[in-house]
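CHAIN AND CONFORMATION:
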Amino acid sequence: MTQQELADKIGITRQTIGLIETGNYNPTIKLCLKICYALNKSLDELFWEDKNNEE
């Protein structure tokens, strides 16, 4: 799925998806859930950061 397809599916801009991916935008929990539902993934699968892997 492209950024544009995901953005269209959840009603936001492609630019917002890009900002989330690069860590330059912190989405609300409501937006996180919309993304999870659209991708059929859990919050942990998409948004969990392992503290041991942080740079």
Notes: Residues 3-50 form a domain with the 434 Repressor (Amino-terminal Domain) fold (CATH 1.10.260.40).
